Structure formats: C-alpha cells, structure tokens
Amino acid sequence: MRYCRLALTSLALVFLFNNGHAQTPEAAKRYFQQGVKNLAEGNLAVAFEDYSRAIEISSRLDSRKITASGGFTITELNSTDEADRVRVIDPFTAVAYCNRGIVRNRQRDLDGAISDFNAALRINPRLAEAYLGRGVTYRFKGEFDKAIADFDRALSLNDRFAEARIDRADLRLDRGDLDGALKDLEVALKLTPRIAEVHYLLGYVAMGKKQYQQALPFFDRALELKPTLAQAYEGRGTVRFQLGRFDDAIDDFNRSLEINPQMVNAYLNRGLALLMKHDDANAQKDFDACLALNPTLQAELKNRAELARELRNVKH
Question: Which three-class secondary structure state does DSSP give residue 4?
C-alpha cells in the first residue's frame, strides 16, 4: 500500500481562470481572481468567501431565497440544496462553483464539495474539470467506482486532459490495475513529460510488476523534476530495499520523512531496513511511529517484521 497522494493534480485547476462572458459583472471576475490567489496561498476560508461572492454576483437563486433587498446572503449560498435552486444567467458561474468545490475538498467538507461540483455540472454538463474534481472527492470518500466513472467522463470530454489521466492512473494503481494505470501514464507522459508525479507513478507501476531495476530511473527522474516529492523518495527507498541496498533505502526514507513526517509506509519500510541491519531498537521506534499514525497496520507490520528477521538470519 502506497502513501495516498492528495490527488496530485487534484485540482491543479484551482489556477483555472475564466475571463467570463460579455455579461459577466466585473465584480464577479475580481472576486474570482481573489479566490484563485487566496486558494493558492492556502487562505481557504477567504477563498471560500471570494468564490461565494463571485457566484452570488454572476447568478440568481430561486425567488423564495432572495433577501428583502433583492440580494443573497453567504449563508444561503452555502446551503447543501443550492444546486437545485440555481437559475444561472452566466456560464461563468459554473467555473466559480467548480473552484469553490476545490476549496471545500481541501477543507475536507467532502459533501459540500460534491454539492458544488454538481452545481457546476448542472450549469455546464461539459465542464471536464468539474468531473475531475468530483472524482477526486469521491475517491477521498472511498467511493472508487464513482471516482473512476467521473475520471472516465472527464476524459470522454477531453482525451488530452492530462490531470484526469494521472488521477485515474493513480486510482487504478491503488486498485491493482497495473496495466490500466500504465496505459494512462504512457499517454500522460506524452502530454506532460515534465510532471514529476507521472514519473514516480510509472516507478510504482514497475515496482508493482517487480521490475525493480526498471523502476529506479523513473524515481530518479521524478526527483530531478521535483526534489521535494516525498512519495518519490519513499518509492525509490522501497525499490532499493527490495534490491538489498539497505543503507541507500534508509537514506531515502529519511529524506521522505523530513519532507513529510506523516508518511506511514516510510516508517514501516525504514523499520524493516533497520531490522535487516540488526538495528532492532531503532526499528521498533519506527514501527511504533507507524502504528501511531495507522493502528490498522498492526497485523501487516507484525508479519513483515517476522519475515525480515527470518531473512536476515538466513543471510547470516
């Protein structure tokens, strides 16, 4: 099991900008631009308000929800049945809903995010980015079949949509569909050869096929493109472990944990490498850290640790 990405491209479309149509109010465009900026800076609550204002200005809701002054309140705009009440006067609104869905995804308001993506798709059923965003959100909810269906739909609308291919490949990889993941990644590589995540995922596909030597160059390339990609260090460390290069593996796991201390498998695999070097005390510290982050791995950890001890004894 790999460290789960935050859907990498997940939603790189947060940087999507739409100039709007001729009828789009300038105020709506300004709030949208502010939302893009605030989301990029991690100011999620402010970005949420920005996109809500863009939606408010560029659309109108059912008259029963209109205030005495004829406007709308942010509270009303946040309601979960909003998608059923929208009467749009500007397709720009779909893009604002899509990006607000990204904000909600990052806030872990997954149901709210899906509601926003649904609203975007009711306005514009051909907005591929909204299918990607909803698919990523379904994945976080553990609804994998729905996620795959949304990635499929996004690609049916735009077969050159590299982000959708990468996220579908990642999910296929997690579900054991190595050939399906490889097919998507080969296309993504042609479309976006300098996206580090494509290379590290190709490394995981090779590793899943037990092609360890072939996997190494993919992880190396990923780290050339993005030296802070913790998952690539973890993947390369795992390959080096499988090749018996325990010191190199430990170096990679160290680096991955420096970048992201929440990487459960890096603790587990570093502990196994330390066991192979007969450093049982430090191995146990890593196992404890692993279980503190994910107690459900206890049985797997126990089995793999026992196997590592047997293997090291055979070697000696």
Answer: coil
Digit-coded pLDDT (tens) for 230-261: 999 999 999 999 999 999 999 999 999 999 99
All domains in the chain, ordered by first residue: 1-157 (1.25.40.10)
DSSP secondary structure code for residue 24 in this structure:
S
**297, two tokens:** 């791995």
CA 172 to chain centre: 14
Contacts of 121 (CB under 8 A, 6+ apart): 94, 127, 130, 131, 134
Q: Where are the alpha helices (DSSP H) in the chain?
A: 26-40, 44-58, 74-77, 82-85, 92-106, 110-123, 128-140, 144-157, 162-174, 178-191, 196-208, 212-225, 230-242, 246-259, 264-276, 280-293, 298-315
Q: Token pair of 159, please?
A: 């077969």
| Single-letter amino acid, residue 24 | T
Segment 15-24 mean pLDDT: 55
Q: Find the angle CA(147)-CA(152)-CA(157) to the nearest 5 degrees.
A: 130
- pLDDT at 22 (0 to 100): 52
Cα–Cα distance, 160 to 165 (Å, whole number): 8
User: What does the pLDDT read at residue 49?
Assistant: 97
* Out of 57-71, 106-120, 126-140, 214-228, least confident range: 57-71
User: Within 13 Å and on the Cβ side, how many CA atoms surround 91?
Assistant: 10
Residues 6 or more apart from 214 whose CB is under 8 A from it? 206
Give the angle 73-78-81 at the CA atoms, nearest 5°.
Answer: 115
Distance in angstroms between the alpha carbons of the first and the last residue of the chain: 29
Tell me the two tokens of residue 5. 């990405």
**DSSP 8-state symbol, 59:** E
What's the pLDDT band for 67 if we cut at 50, 70, 90? very low
SS3 128: helix
